[in-house]
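Example 320.
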Amino acid sequence: MAEDPNSWETGTRLIRGGLSRTHFGETAEALFLTQSFVYETAESADARFAGDEPGFVYSRYANPTTQMFEDRLALLEGAEYCRALASGMAAVYMSLLGLVKAGDHIVAGRALFGSSRWILTQAAPRFGVEVTFVPAFDTQAWRNAVRPNTKVFLIETPANPMLELTDLAEVCAIAKAAGIKTIVDNVFATPIFQKPLEFGTDVVVYSATKHIDGQGRVLGGAILGSKALLEEAYRDPIRHMGPAISPFNSWVLLKGLETLDLRVRRQADTAAALADRIAAHAKVKTCVYPGRADHPQAAIARKQMTGGGGTVIAFDLGSK
Ligand SMILES: Cc1ncc(COP(=O)(O)O)c(C=O)c1O
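Predicted structure in complex with pyridoxal-5'-phosphate:
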């Protein structure tokens, strides 16, 4: 009987997940650096483009190396499906674009990565989409911001750069009750320390450029969630709007995933030790780290970040 990959430990998932060997039996994953694929007959080409026959068509749609990366990341995240994209920002904008149209409303945490803020403050209004920013740690503020036309909550927890946390279970429940989809940018938490889908999130996005590569080589991003939602909301926009990742980058990210657990746990240990040193320094006003008991939302961290406080510390030296 075939093994169930969902029974594998994290380390095994990161090395064996998604692996699809060719007939050569290569040890490292094959890099299919190809734009498109050949067909036995014109009828077969026709059937593949129509989706009536299995097989790859064009690397803007899907690619075997990229699919290995997508399957491995989905297995790590506990997600049914994953689509890899060219960068974290491609993943953020696609995740929003697939769920809203002119006349809709988005609620987002007020502290967000700068490019995500640009999308919401500069691009969204040009397409007739309204946005409300809320203090992301304040569950009641998310509830109060809901309007009849609210379609998406965009949550970044911990948020870049001041590491505010949002209670995922509570905020996702508010969204679900109102028929609103939740998107969580899980970059700072990493898939090692936080699994937003377990708290009721619909969509998880990553910049794979950060921990998943982790070695400063390539850009990449990913959207994860249920197969039904990803197919319905994102399949066609991804095919036709062109945010595809290079198969080369997918290959590098596959290798990055192999060591993700080891690297991130070590980085988090270092961050925790450094946070304590920085917090104790006479010239530091405040030190914010989700793994410390004095983090303003330490209770939320304990609830939803398991095994570590992440790899990033924020601190304030006060005014000069
Ligand atoms: C929280 C967060 N989301 C998204 C991004 C964007 O990722 P990329 O640089 O891969 O486009 C970043 C980049 O720093 C980030 O910190």
